[in-house]
Amino acid sequence: MLRNAIYISISLFILILPAAALGQAPVLFFSDLVSGPATGGENNRGAFVTIVGRHFGEQQANGYVSIGGGRAGAYKSWADDKIIFQLGHEAKTGDITVTTAGGTSNGLPFVERPGNIYFVSARATNDPGGGDWLDPWLSPESFYKNMKPGDICYIREGIYTERYGASNERANIGIGDEAPDGMPNNEIAWVAYPGDAVRFEAAGLKANILFGYKKNYYVFAGLSLWANESCIVFIGGNHRFVNNSCEGLKAHGYAAIHPSGGSGSKIYGNHIFGAESKNKLDHPIYVAYGTDDLDIGWNRLFANDVAEGPVISINTDNATVAHYTFENILIHDNIIDCRGSSAPLRAIGIVATDKGSSVYIYNNIIIGGGDTTLYQYSARSYIYNNTILDSSGSAALLLETVQDGANYYRPDGADVFNNIFYNRTGAFYVMIKDEGAMGNITISNNCYFGNGGGPVKDVYAVNADPWFIDANSGDFRLQAASPCVDSGDSRTLAVAGRDFNGNPRPFGSGVDIGAYEYTLQAAVAVAPGSSTPTSQAFPLMPGDIMRVVGSSAGKGSVNPDRGETAKIYFRGSDTGEFELRIFNNTGELIWQDKKTNTREDFFEWAPATVASGIYTAHIKGPGINTSRKIAVIR
User: Fold this and answer.
1) Tens of pLDDT along 70-123?
2) Alpha carbons 75 and 2: distance in angstroms, whole number
3) Beta-carbon neighbour count of residue 26 at 10 Å?
4) What is the CA radius of gyration of the chain?
5) Distance between CA 181 and CA 465 in Å, rounded?
């Protein structure tokens, strides 16, 4: 009752004050680089680093980034969820932190160390060039031939369509046997220069990035990848694939991103979309061959047509006979939108793994999953604090044993705690087949709404409307009076100690149910019963303020010759006037439009008369002053 009373007394202020005014401390999720030099490169200020999180503020104001206690040397951009800075001479080994009027963030470890910084530009005047800031290499091939542990290459704007790595690999960047390994805190990094649209196209190749041999400690960050088959196929360990745009699987290729063995790699902050193969053997992320300690977090997976999929598959045929064990697979803080496939698309499948495998699925928002949105045939699972909306078919979660030739698969156990199952489709919430043959299955403290009460196995079920703030616009945070507030099980905290927005759990007297922990910043009054989801698309996900959907079909780049258009979605902080301006790569204004008396809407641009290239869309209005790139391909 006390929390509700507080909510009533201050909610009017919360509706009008920005996060900074509420003293909300910044939160860091991840960085692209975890090591680099503080000197060299552009203006001798060292490596550029991108950090992603929440509550940085839309403008820098008096905010700053520290690296081991020393302040960053320069800033390329500052937004509420992303900062790009240059290390500068004060940087030291230690934690990266962000300090604003709301406080100082948690830290991300970083090692300042020696290393070379190189540059590549498709507009370089010299061939091959010298590889430095003033005389960049013309081709990425020059970096491939010269790279060694600790080297960072920043690639400038352009469209790169050739083979730049190993000549015998069918990829834009093929990592061959001759390529060196990176080392701990001396990674080999291929990074888009801050603010530049760097696009690799693999139209007649197998992949954009392909590790033909087991290598370790590589980073690929900020790249726009387009592939007829796969964007990234890798083996080896401790790689980082961060903040990339991955549009692949136009034809059958098994995976857009394909971890194929090794351990310790990170797949963070990528947009994975545009699959058109209509083949259930294809998966936007396909984890195979006993990959271990893989961290899949903060990605957006949407607009993928791979029939029933699933979107994320953990599977290798003959796993129990060949002993493929997948240990410590983390799938968290992702938005997985399953709608738009030619068959009901499943979200996550734990399929063929050997005994001893473990998978953690938490803080995900899953929308419109097909028959058995999540399904588990093997491994030990920990399914915590997910928000699962509008599943179709027989069940949102299926646990089942499977006999496949000489391989017998059975779930080794499952903990299913603190999830919201929000079904208006008639599907069951949870289905268990042949439970007696499985390990211990514990289902507790979940919320069930839309198709009656939850399973009797969940003795602490919440059978009620979760009271989202505004599901129709994709805001699945909880209202103060939600029955999910303080109704969760605290056994999840060791894994899911923060929520989807990075807020610490618990906020009040107990853990909340669902991907979001209720906080005072989420206290918005909405009438009961208004949270019923519709079938409309959610082009803007929670936390987004601007997104470009690059064709009238929502499938990536714009091809005007096919009649495609670009839709530029935006969400402001208040109702008002929003202006869109589109510029070409020389800075010339080529198109503009305005929307008035709105807060969330979209512009549609038909680039029928412009040439192929990279264009910049800029929107300015209440609470938004930001840009995104649009690729026009004829």
Assistant:
1) 999 999 999 999 999 999 999 999 999 999 999 999 999 999 999 999 999 999
2) 43
3) 28
4) 24
5) 52
